[in-house]
Amino acid sequence: MRHLSRVRRSALVLCLLVAAVPVLAQTPQEVKQQPFQPQVGQHGKDVVWVPTPQALVEKMLDMAQVTPQDFLMDLGSGDGRTVITAAKRGARAMGIEYNPDMVELSKQNAAKAGVSDRAEFMKADLFDTDLSKATVITLFLLPDINLKLRPKILELKPGTRVVSNTFTMDDWAPDETARVEDDCTSWCTALFWIVPAKAAGVWTWPGGELTLTQTFQMVSGTLKNGRGPTEIADGRLRGDRISFTAGATTYTGNVNGTTIEGTATTGSSSVRWTATRAAR
Asked: Are 172 and 150 in contact (CB under 8 A)?
């Protein structure tokens, strides 16, 4: 019985050695050459990787009204799907990704999709990246990361469109929110902002003075003219486009640095108005 037990043990050891041979036979170079396969939940520099559902990618780009005239930057671009989808719509697009394996995978995916000429991927820290050329920014990060990025985003050119998968910008309320119901079971909400112009301050024009207070895209203040001060209502910025009501008159216009030019409408009558930012 002891002899039989030793035979069985020897056979078991032999089987294990045979099973291990293919692994032992692999050289370090062969192991390294195995294709990279991303894993949902894998750790990154700032967040773990979870892909945005393709249905939501399409919705995010729809909300931003991406066209061939746009330059889109995707912050934390993962496997490149948002950049590639934007490129398929004719836009130029760049993905910013810290994981070099994901960057290479994205380049391969772009090549397979036939959009390498419009889809670029860069291994970089999103906090150190120049975003100034972007007309559209997409992101699927976390609320604290969005909040850390927010000051940088708010310094971008007015009218820059920003779309986030699920996560907010803290007290900067989105201009629009949409949810995808079909072909999406999780991470199905898109939040959309337009970077507002800087309109806070005192503006003057012949016969009037406009004092504006601004909280992101929301505007309040007073209008002084020959009839005295009037509180403005429904004040809002959409990029560089401003609108508000004072008394019976609705004002619309474009904020361009030190001037606002637009139209004042009372009933069926409209007149042009131009205001100049007062010296501080």
From this structure: yes
CA torsion, points 253, 254, 260, 263, in degrees to nearest 10? -20
Q: Report pLDDT digits (tens) over 106-125.
A: 999 999 999 999 999 999 99
Reply yes or no on whether the pLDDT at 19 is more than 50. no
3-state secondary structure 28-85: HHHHHCCCCCCCCCCCCCCCCCCCCCHHHHHHHHHHCCCCCCCEEEEECCCCCHHHHH
Distances in whole angstroms, Cα of residue 97 to Cα of each of 115, 155, 209: 18, 22, 48
Q: Domain spans of the chain? A: 54-194, 201-277
User: Could you tell me the fold of the domain covering 201-277?
Assistant: Lipocalin (2.40.128)
0.90 exceeded by pTM: no
Count Cβ atoms within 10 A of the Cβ of residue 88 and give its class: 0-12 exposed, 13-18 middle, 19 or more buried.
Answer: middle
CATH C-level class of 54-194? alpha beta
Which tokens is 207 given?
A: 């016969």
Residue written as token pair 């337009």: 194
Tell me phi and psi for residue 85, to 5 degrees. Answer: -65, -40
The predicted-structure confidence for 54-93, as pLDDT tens digits, reads as follows 999 999 999 999 999 999 999 999 999 999 999 999 999 9
Looking at residue 95, what is its pLDDT?
A: 98
For residue 81 the two structure tokens come to 């799907």
